[in-house]
């Protein structure tokens, strides 16, 4: 549903494309080369979904009886980290549904902290109040994405935008630790070091001067394509929790200026031509010699 909402938003923006000035991104490339770079700095946040799930494990004994290994609830908390990125972007010369696209590479860090509190079986199978602590983090999370944008001006030089894309995340040197009576809990599989997801988001921007733009962008995962999540949607699984990533960033965009036109040399795509033929040049030389003799 979230994906459909974002796509519907983008389609509605494209239907109102007439409200956008044609030179907002110089789509006809009159002054700029239709491509440039973008630098971004922002914040990466993981939100747990659900944040406080209940959990119990009941096993069957050989005699047919049931034993409770644990019963209680989790408190899942996602971490926050700085996010730095760079992207190369281009303007569509004939924008229809989207007006720009970009390839982005960014670095951040994933970190989660989960605490179970409840009743856990003791050595005599009696239940006692106890806790289990899960921690997971990466040294660095590399994020790459290819995205397409649709913008519409709200006021001259102020615009709203929506975007869709496919993102790939890779965890460098992830570590996971479980502290507590782990033998009384169902073991989790080691989380995947990489993910592929359909992403989307919105932003507000301003055309500052020349080919420079400043944008505030919010981005999140819409659907995890690989590996899939138990919770579904844009969440990914780490240990006993599911988390949704959010990024809010400030982007500085710079269009590359076209080189100044030169009057020297042959016109582009055309062979050079002499203004005067051989006969005309011969007559001109005679006139010049005759004029010098009279002097």
Describe the structure.
With 295 residues, this protein is mainly β. It is 11% helix and 57% strand. The protein contains two helices and 14 strands. The chain has helices at 2-15, 278-294, and strands spanning 32-48, 54-60, 66-78, 80-91, 100-108, 111-121, 127-137, 140-155, 158-172, 175-179, 194-209, 212-226, 236-238, 241-257. The strands form two sheets. It has an eight-stranded antiparallel barrel with strand order 1-4-5-8-9-11-12-14. The longest helix is centred in the C-terminal third of the chain and has 17 residues, at 278-294. The chain is rod-shaped. The termini are far apart.
Question: Summed up, what is this model?
Answer:
The chain has 295 residues and is mainly beta.
Key structural traits:
2 helices, 57% strand, 14 strands, mainly beta, eight-stranded antiparallel β-barrel, 295 residues
Q: How widely separated are the two ends?
A: 93 Å
Q: What is the element string, with H for helices and E for strands? A: HEEEEEEEEEEEEEEH
Radius of gyration: 31 Å
Approximately how much helix is present in the residues?
10-25%
Q: Total number of β-strand segments?
A: 14
**Count of helix runs:** 2
Beta-strand percent range: over 45%
Largest sheet: 8 strands, antiparallel, barrel
Helix-strand makeup class: mainly beta
Mean pLDDT: 87
* Uncertain residue ranges: 17-21
For the biggest β-sheet, the strand order reads: 1-4-5-8-9-11-12-14
Shape: rod-shaped
Task: Describe the protein's topology.
Layout: H1 2-15, E1 32-48, E2 54-60, E3 66-78, E4 80-91, E5 100-108, E6 111-121, E7 127-137, E8 140-155, E9 158-172, E10 175-179, E11 194-209, E12 212-226, E13 236-238, E14 241-257, H2 278-294
Antiparallel strand pairs: 1-4, 1-14, 2-3, 3-6, 4-5, 5-8, 6-7, 7-10, 8-9, 9-11, 11-12, 12-14, 13-14
